[in-house]
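My convention is simple: the sequence line spells out the residues, with the fold written below as integer tokens. I include a record here:
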Amino acid sequence: MAIACLVLGLGLVGGAGVGAWVLRDPGTTTERTAYTETATLWHSTPVDTLFPRSLRGAGAGPGGADRTWTRVAVAPDAPCATVLQPRLAAALRPAGCLRVLRATYTDATSTHVTTVGLAFMRTDAAGMTALHGRFTTGGLDRNPELIPPALAAPGTVAAGFGNAQRASWHVSVLTEVPAVVFAVSGFADGRAVTQPQPAPQAMAKGQSTTAAQAGLGHESRGVADRVEQQLRSAVTRATEGPATKGER
């Protein structure tokens, strides 16, 4: 697994020049913004930067308990239509979904597993604002037909984590950055869940569902929030300083 992650990390770094050439006009001078730089981050940023080997979630568990998650798998980047469920891919298509990166984490007790993903979009601020509205006000982030896919990892505690095991999910459509962050959690023992529940509901007080009682809403939300922070930090570094004419 370590070798696979290393290879992927090197591949992400190696693709930077190609992506920048394609997505920038070499004859112009332009200010670096989240909307000019994010589209290349999926192959210009080392995997350990976007998906650290471990994540710490102070107060991220039920009742404010601390959480720690360890990465057990990273998937190669893939087209949105290939990785995402058809309904979810269709919902993101108006904003120009470019590429998806995914990783799977497990909690400190190896009881829960969570797949987290980054969908990189090619649109402007208005496009992301419209997409955000469709997911939040329009309720797409709570639609069980748009649950993000699970990423199993043979030979690890996530070996049995498939789509039938998804218990709780979280989708965050960013507006300052052209990206969508999602996560889906389940049990490491491979048990199927017949009634998955979106994280906001599973985290609410008084819930008696399987996802709520196991804290799986906290798992998906907690992992997604930490990876979102990693992405935002990467975007900030990419946008520091003005671009120079002819920069690739």
In short: The two ends are 32 Å apart (CA to CA).
